[in-house]
Design brief:
The complex is a heterodimer of chains A (158) and B (136).
Chain A lengths: L1 H46 L2 E2 L16 E2 L7 E2 L1 H9 L4 H10 L6 E8 L5 E6 L8 E9 L3 E10 L1
Parallel strand pairs in A: 3-6
Antiparallel strand pairs in A: 1-2, 4-5, 4-7, 6-7
Chain B lengths: L1 H27 L3 H22 L2 H6 L4 H8 L5 E9 L4 E6 L10 E10 L2 E11 L6
Antiparallel strand pairs in B: 1-2, 1-4, 3-4
Classes of the chains: A alpha+beta (158), B alpha+beta (136).
C-alpha cells in the first residue's frame, strides 16, 4: 500500500516536472526568437546605412522606395539626418509597421532610445515601448556627429 | 509479498532516475550565459569602434585617459572592461580598468584594434567580462 502511494507521488512529481520543462522550453525558445530579432535589428540600424544608402533623402518614404533601414555611415557612426528621418516615420502606425518590415522584424514590436552616455538625457526615440516585462533589451554604443558617444537601447517584444 | 516489494522498489528507483534525468535536461535546455556573451561581444566591438573613431585612443597616447575612461565607466552595469594600449614596439602606453570590477573571469571577450597616431602604429585590446555577482 505504501509502495503504491510512493509511486503515485513520484508519478505526480514526474507530470509536474514535465509541464515545467515544456513551459521552460517554450519560454526559452520565445526568448531566443526575440533576442535574434533584436540583435538583427540593432546590427541593421547601427552598422548599415540602409538600402538605398541615401534613403533618408527620399521625400515620401514608402515600402516600395526603401529596401532596408539603417542609420550608420560606418560601424557605429550614426548620421543625424537618418535619425531625423526615422523619427518622422514614427508618426503613423503605417510608417512604423513599414520600418519594422524593413528591419526584418515584422513579427515583433521595437522601441529605440538614444540617450547621452550617462543615460540622463534622451536624444532620440522611435517605436513603441512595452508596458509589460516581456521584452528583450539590447544595449549598444554609437557615435553621434562623429564625436559624441551615446547609448542606444533597442527594446524588442512580441 | 517479497516479490511485490522488489517490483515496487524497482519502479521507485526507475522513476527517481527518470526524474533526475529530466531535471538535468531542464537545467541544460537554456543557457542564458551564451546569448548574453554575444551581447557583450557586440558591445565590446562597439566600444572599441567608438573609442577609435572619436579619437579617444589617440588621446590616450597624448596622455589623456579621461575620455576613454568615461566610455568604460558608462558601459552597462553588468559589464566589466579593461582597455590596454601598446605601441608597435611592445611598450605599454596605458591600461584602464572600469571602476568596481575585480579581475577577469573565465567568460571573457577580447577585441583588438590597430590604429595610427602621429604616424606610429598602436594596438588597443579591450577585455570584457561579466561583473562578479556579490552574494551578501
Amino acid at each position: 500500500m505504501s509502495g503504491l502511494v510512493m509511486i503515485s507521488i513520484l508519478i505526480m512529481i514526474f507530470i509536474l516536472e514535465w509541464n515545467y520543462i515544456a513551459l521552460r522550453w517554450n519560454s526559452s525558445e520565445s526568448y531566443r526568437e526575440i533576442l535574434g530579432a533584436g540583435l538583427f535589428a540593432a546590427d541593421s540600424l547601427f552598422i548599415t546605412p540602409g538600402d538605398p544608402p541615401g534613403w533618408e533623402r527620399i521625400p515620401n518614404i514608402t515600402a516600395s522606395s526603401v529596401n532596408s533601414i539603417g542609420l550608420a555611415r560606418g560601424r557605429n557612426e550614426i548620421v543625424n539626418a537618418k535619425l531625423d528621418a526615422l523619427s518622422l516615420l514614427n508618426q503613423t502606425n503605417e510608417s512604423y509597421d513599414m520600418v519594422r518590415t524593413k528591419l526584418g522584424i515584422q513579427g515583433f514590436q521595437i522601441h529605440l532610445l538614444i540617450t547621452d552616455l550617462s543615460n540622463e538625457h534622451q536624444l532620440y526615440e522611435f517605436g513603441r515601448s512595452s508596458a509589460l516585462n516581456n521584452s528583450v533589451i539590447i544595449d549598444r554604443l554609437v557615435l553621434l556627429n562623429n564625436t559624441i558617444p551615446a547609448r542606444a537601447r533597442v527594446e524588442v517584444w512580441r | 509479498m517479497k516479490k511485490g516489494f522488489v517490483i515496487t522498489l524497482d519502479a521507485i528507483v526507475a522513476i527517481s532516475f527518470m526524474l533526475l534525468s529530466l531535471y538535468f535536461i531542464a537545467s541544460l535546455s537554456f543557457n542564458p550565459t551564451a546569448v548574453k556573451g554575444a551581447q557583450l561581444k557586440q558591445y565590446s566591438l562597439d566600444s572599441l569602434s567608438v573609442l577609435e573613431k572619436s579619437g579617444r585612443l589617440g588621446l590616450i597616447i597624448a596622455g589623456n585617459t579621461t575620455a576613454a575612461r568615461d566610455i568604460l565607466l558608462y558601459s552597462p552595469e553588468p559589464y566589466c572592461m579593461q582597455l590596454s594600449v601598446i605601441a608597435a614596439n611592445g611598450t605599454s602606453m596605458a591600461t584602464i580598468d572600469k571602476p568596481g570590477c575585480k579581475g577577469a573571469q573565465s567568460e571573457m571577450q577580447i577585441s583588438h584594434s590597430v590604429f595610427r597616431y602621429n604616424g606610429i602604429l598602436y594596438s588597443a585590446t579591450l577585455r570584457s567580462w561579466f561583473r562578479e555577482e556579490v552574494n551578501e
